[in-house]
Design goal:
This protein is mostly beta strands. The chain has 7 helices and 50 strands. 51% of the residues are buried.
């Protein structure tokens, strides 16, 4: 090796080792032991087969088995909406609405009053807003006056001058717009009691409802001394499962609008191949008409098992034939909704988890890998300790070698969430039982805390959630009889907005996307993969992340979006090779809700996903409206990994089967083979990525730069893309900026979105309409392109990134994971100076500098093989 080559190597090796051994962000020092749930709070545990389930199903009353918190034939009530269903108050934070859109709602005053008026707005989405509201006045049971129709009903509260004199009762009548209902919001109801004989004139009254609570039902309460009546209007029946709960004020952060969205690219990744697809459960199966389904299902060795609101069904995974099905109420009596299922590859068992929306979590564990056989079933009370008086909503589900894990928002005060860790060994013993259950209570509201589905072994069980500009990662360690929970560690993520509701063909009001909470999470080979729905340029889009738990940093991620379609409810999984698949729903004003998938091969360009593929078209409009006027579509979906080969990936997604009938569609997918998995030889191909930008404003100060790349008098317009390169993908990179119509400077910043870095190349000169810079890639650093324009300037342009590989690295996959990466360098460094074959690339009997040079073959001579 020449002196110049060795000098160049020394510099680059120094940079590489610096990056390899930068200390990871310290885990939070907080470690808690949790609270063991007293076995007296356990329900009975039984083992039973499907004969008992089907018998219960056969003998259940016609209206049983639902456990619904939906209407179930009840009339509307006056209610203060929940935080998540609060849309347009006139003053303060609270108002009242006519639940279920009941079109005839009365208020009794108990004496004669003059009713001056009330502020009116639409409730929920535009398609649910009534188009007209009028008030009918009564005196001693006789109708005495009626107003004209008030039609100024939209997202801005307007004053409805009622002007009814000397009435003791009024009835608000709304025009039906959807399923026989017409929703509205009332705030600041103004009236003046008339004086009784011999009394002074009472003061005018304005009810602003600020002394109420979210979800407070006024009907039957005598609130403010008035009689709040039950509705009497006719409308279509329904069975809605409530949307995920949120504490007061919690969604204010989630609904923020942020700027500077990173446009993580797609389209340059490997498209998964569809192997098979079949129809799953749909609305009406087993006589169940609840909505939404909360789509969930997983694959096992011979079956696909699906649980939705409120049906469980097992399918032959090869043919798609339904083998057995029942209502959830018959399968787990006492349970209600938000069902979850997974196949535990560690034990070869199925796990089903459901809440009763009251106080308990219900759990079922199969006796074998056959879901049509016997199951152990039990439950335990979670509403105790500091959670006493609260009830569990949106429970999640994860598993590792030793435990089963769930988390839930404990509704009813405190704005807190709780994690429950269940010792798995007793559940799969013979006979089975419910062993130690440990609660970790009082965790802050984070939408959903997702325990990961752990593949392989890990340091412990990871939990991941989202809060603001961070992912939060917790770790549970120790024996499941005495576990400890540490964290959270914070992983910074690119900014995003809360997703808007998604329009769909024939839907009077958009489909509810439930916000940016994480949908599911899996762990494999040192990484957590997770996904959620975000807002991007006014549309719903699917964001995915891969978190490196050793560095506790975002390794990569991306946003799957479209110029017209909304994508929502994503779930993700990864196989043994590192390929990933993500499934989700897509819709817009011209398309019924349909099922989609995308994915990537493990060695595709970082941040990339393939263009989405539609695999089941929607065939009907969806208008399944809940009590607050929201068009409920679901709470989540699921992707799962085939335990037979740990390569094939499955997904179950929701689509519009027929008018107001949701359906679910199952698909199995594989990611086609590409170049050999060692990243060596000629596997690295030329990569070119193009980013277009338009109407960018140079109006904000950027960070300081080194003197040789000054941006004095300029503002930075940062590119929407971070590019991340394999540590051994030594390449020449050219960044070209064309078509800009403002004075341009160009800089390339190397580092990571969450940490420090440096400018590695820049071009201070403006050359007509093009500025270009070329440099050698800084190993595994991220690259960000910064464009500088003078203050107040605007411009359009096209930025092109071209990556051309230099020399190929030598094969040195010491840990046999199919990739030559930093882990192999660590293996080599760990064997430094010892004798033996591991790391002895040049076969001279020692692991020494020459072997390191051989491993980093782009800078040294590859040894003869």
């Amino acid at each position: 090796m020449s002196t110049q080559t060795r000098a160049t190597f020394a510099v680059r090796l120094s940079v590489l080792l610096t990056m390899l051994f930068i200390p990871a962000p310290a885990r939070a020092a907080t470690t808690v032991s949790g609270e063991r749930i007293d076995p007296s709070a356990y329900g009975p545990g039984i083992v039973e087969g499907w004969d008992a389930v089907l018998l219960r199903d056969l003998n259940r009353p016609a209206d049983a088995g639902n456990g619904s918190r939906g209407r179930n034939g009840a009339q509307g009530v006056w209610v203060v909406p929940s935080r998540g269903a609060t849309y347009h108050p006139h003053s303060g934070a609270h108002y009242i609405t006519n639940k279920w859109g009941d079109t005839s709602m009365g208020i009794g005053f108990g004496r004669l009053v003059d009713v001056e008026g009330v502020h009116v707005a639409g409730q929920a989405g535009r398609g649910a807003w009534t188009t007209g509201l009028r008030a009918i006045g009564y005196r001693e049971g006789t109708e005495v006056a009626v107003t004209e129709w008030f039609e100024d009903i939209d997202d801005t509260p307007s004053f409805f001058a009622i002007d009814l004199e000397a009435v003791d009762r009024i009835v608000f009548e709304s025009r039906p717009v959807l399923n026989g209902g017409g929703w509205y919001a009332l705030d600041d109801l103004a009236f003046t009691p008339l004086p009784r004989r011999g009394q002074a004139a009472p003061a005018p009254v304005v009810l602003d409802f600020e002394d109420t609570n979210y979800r407070q039902v006024l009907t039957g309460s005598n609130y403010a001394g008035l009689t709040w009546e039950t509705g009497t209007g006719p409308f279509t029946d329904g069975d809605a499962v409530h949307a995920p709960m949120a504490p007061p004020g919690a969604e204010a952060d989630e609904e923020r609008e942020t700027q500077g969205f990173p446009a993580m690219p797609m389209g340059a990744a490997t498209t998964p191949e569809l192997l098979s697809t079949f129809e799953g459960i749909r609305r009406g199966d087993e006589g169940q008409w609840s909505y939404p389904p909360d789509t969930c299902g997983a694959v096992g060795p011979n079956h696909f098992l699906s649980v939705v609101n409120r049906v469980i069904a097992a399918f032959d995974r090869e043919t798609g034939d339904e083998i057995i099905a029942a209502t959830l109420g018959a399968f787990l009596p006492g349970s209600s909704g938000d069902p979850r299922v997974l196949y535990d590859q560690h034990s070869g068992r199925w796990i089903v988890l459901i809440t009763d929306f009251s106080s308990r979590i219900f759990l079922a564990v199969s006796s074998t890998d056959d879901p049509t056989g016997d199951w152990f079933k039990t439950n335990f009370t979670v509403s105790q300790g500091s959670d006493a008086g609260r009830w569990p909503d949106y429970p999640t589900l994860g598993v590792d070698e030793f435990g089963v894990y769930t988390s839930a928002y404990m509704v009813g005060g405190g704005n807190t969430m709780s994690i429950f860790a269940i010792d798995k060994e007793p559940l799969i013993d013979d006979p089975p039982s419910l062993g130690t259950v440990t609660a970790f209570r009082g965790l802050p509201w984070e939408g959903a805390i997702q325990p990961v589905h752990t593949y392989g072994s890990a340091e412990g069980e990871y939990f991941i959630s989202r809060g603001g500009a961070n992912l939060k990662v917790r770790l549970l360690t120790g024996p499941l009889t005495e576990p400890e929970l540490s964290g959270p560690s914070f992983v910074e993520i690119p900014s995003h907005a809360s997703p808007p509701d998604a329009p769909a063909l024939g839907s009077n009001t958009p489909l509810d996307t439930v916000g940016p909470r994480l949908m599911n999470a899996v762990y494999r080979d040192g990484s957590i993969w997770t996904a959620h729905t975000i807002g991007y340029n006014g549309r719903a889009a699917c964001r995915w992340y891969r978190v490196d738990v050793a560095e506790m940093a975002l390794a990569q991620g991306g946003t799957v979006l479209d110029s017209s379609l909304h994508y929502f409810f994503p779930s993700i999984t990864v196989n043994a090779q590192g390929d990933a698949v993500m499934g989700f729903t897509g819709s817009n004003e011209d398309q019924y809700a349909a099922t989609y998938y995308t994915g990537r091969r493990y060695n595709d360009a970082p941040q990339m996903m393939a263009d989405p593929v539609l695999y089941r078209e929607g065939e009907g409009a969806q208008n399944n409206i809940d009590g607050y006027g929201r068009n409920r579509w679901g709470d989540y979906s699921l992707c799962s990994l085939d335990p037979v080969d740990e390569t094939t990936m499955w997904t179950i997604q929701e689509y519009g089967h027929a008018n107001n009938v949701w359906g679910t569609q199952v698909a199995s997918l594989t990611v086609p083979d590409g170049p050999a998995a060692d990243h060596c030889g000629s596997n690295i191909e030329v990569y070119e990525g193009v980013t277009e930008f338009s109407n960018v404003d140079a109006t904000t100060d950027g960070p300081d730069e080194p003197d040789d790349c000054t941006f004095d008098g300029y503002s930075h317009i940062e590119s929407d893309i971070w590019y991340r390169f394999n540590p051994l993908q030594i390449a020449e990179i050219t960044v070209s900026l064309c078509g800009s119509d403002f004075d341009t400077k160009l800089a390339v910043y190397a580092g990571c979105p969450t940490g420090s870095g440096q400018v590695i190349a820049c071009n201070d000169d403006f050359c007509g309409e093009q500025s270009e810079v070329t440099f050698i890639s800084p190993q595994e650093w991220n690259l960000q392109i910064r464009i500088g324009g003078k203050y107040g300037a605007q411009g359009d342009g096209i930025m092109t990134i071209t990556v051309t590989p230099l020399e190929d690295p030598c094969p040195a996959d010491f840990d046999d994971n199919g990739v030559v990466d930093t882990a192999d360098l660590l293996v080599l460094l760990g064997a430094w100076g010892t004798s033996g074959p591991e790391g002895d690339v040049d076969d001279d009997g020692d692991v020494d500098t020459d072997d390191l040079l051989a491993l980093l073959g782009a800078w040294g001579d590859c040894p003869d093989e």
